[in-house]
Each structure stands twice: as C-alpha cells, then as structure tokens.
Design brief:
rod-shaped; mainly beta; six-stranded antiparallel beta sheet; Jelly Rolls
C-alpha cells in the first residue's frame, strides 16, 4: 500500500512540475547612461568650455585675423549646441565678428553677444568642423585683441 501511495505521489509530482515551471515572472531592467558632451579646440581637450585668443591687425584699411579659423570637435551622446561669444579687449562695441562653417555664414554679431554656431544630435564619434572668422566692418588702423569663448551645452 505504501508503494502505491508513493507511486501516486511521484506521478502527481511529475505531472505538476511542468505546470509550475510555466508560470511567468516579469522583471524590469533600467539602464541609465550619463550624458556625454566633450569639446576639443584645435586638438586640445576641454570639458565643455574652450577659449581662443583672437588678434586683429588693421593696416591701410586691410584687416588680418590670427587665427583665421579654429577647428572644433564635438563628441556627444545626446542633442547638443555649440555657442560662441566674443569678448573684446580695447575694441568698440560696434565690432562685428562673423562665423563661417562649411562656406556658409552662420552668424554675425557684435562684442559681448552669445550665438549658437553649431548644433546637432548624438555624434557617433568625434564630429569635426572648421569655423572661420570674418569681420563685417573694418575698424580703424591698429592692433586689437579679444577672446572667443566656445560653450558646448545640451539645448
């Protein structure tokens, strides 16, 4: 009798095991990736802010800028924008500096204003652009200086 009860119990257990294994459980997994915004100015690593000293020499109404352009590289895993501000040293507020990217004017602005020069989505590696500088108006003969400050942010 014991062996019959044991046999019935074993059969019941064997038949119930697959049913128990078929129950479903759900798990929620979340992954949080940190936002990455990296900026390089002419090959030099910066965090999100880079400064470029600018010298303007004007002789006989002809201006030369040093540097004439800056190479910027952006690495981002999210939407981003690169802004530029020009701070003049000893220049009048009427100076208008232009930024040109891919042979198209991006913006003209006078000193102390901030303008978006570039923007984009996640870069999938380093995105490189060359930003050239131009003057809208030529100041009086002399030497002038200032700083262009680039700031990389998420819009």
């Amino acid at each position: 009798m014991r062996s019959v009860v044991a046999l019935v119990g074993l059969i019941t257990l064997l038949l119930a095991a697959p049913c128990a294994a078929q129950t479903r459980t759900t798990h929620e997994v979340s992954v949080s990736l940190p936002m990455i915004l990296r900026l390089r100015i002419d090959g030099e690593h910066t965090r999100s802010l880079g400064e470029v000293p600018l010298t303007i020499n004007v002789a006989a109404g002809v201006a030369s800028l040093e540097p004439e352009h800056t190479r910027v590289q952006v690495f981002a895993n999210t939407r981003w924008q690169l802004s530029a501000a020009f701070t003049a040293e000893g220049m009048s507020a009427s100076l208008e500096l232009g930024f040109v990217v891919d042979d198209r004017p991006v913006t003209w602005h006078s000193t102390s204003l901030v303008h978006v020069v570039l923007r984009g989505d996640a870069t999938c590696g380093w995105r490189e652009e060359t930003i050239r500088y131009l003057l809208a108006t030529i100041p009086a003969d002399g030497s002038y200086g200032g700083t262009i400050t680039y700031t990389l942010t998420r819009p």
